[in-house]
Amino acid sequence: MDDLPRILYGWSWEENKLFEMALAVVDEEDPDRWKVVAAMVGAKKSEEDVQKHYVILLEDLQGIESGKLDHTLVGEAHPCVQADCSQSVCWNDEDHKLLIRLDIN
Fold first, then answer.
1. What is the mean pLDDT of the chain?
2. Cβ–Cβ < 8 Å for 58, 36
3. I want to staple 11 with a disulfide (CB 3.0 to 4.6 A). Which of 1, 15, 33, 68 is the partner?
């Protein structure tokens, strides 16, 4: 699997899947929800880690649902860099060429 998400968030693909499954089975009203989710994810994730990861998930979903993030897989996709919670900046060929020129110099 691609290591980019792990670099950005510190979570592997497998940890994310365990996290998603735990969210699906642990009741939102459970007073020990984050403790149980952390235990199900394992990998030494704390209650605080899973709560923060949940907030990131909600922000990502909000961005996708609001149309601020392009999540389509049609055609040639350009990588997008999240600038802040209110906008995303799409990387284009011109940006890539500029980066390569800066990297060489």
1. 75
2. no
3. 15
Phi and psi dihedrals of 90, rounded to 5? Answer: -85, 135
Which of 59, 39, 56, 57 lies closest to 47, judged by CA?
39
With contact defined as beta carbons under 8 Å apart, do 45 and 15 qualify?
A: yes
- CA distances, 46 to each of 12, 25, 32, 42, 51 (Å): 15, 18, 12, 9, 9
Per-residue DSSP letter, 69: S
Distance CA 31, CA 10 (A): 26
With 0.85 as the threshold, say if the pTM is over it: no
What are the CA-CA distances from residue 79 to residues 25, 38, 69, 72, 93 (Å)?
Answer: 33, 31, 11, 11, 10
pLDDT of residue 105: 45
Detail the DSSP E strand segments found in the chain: 80-84, 87-90
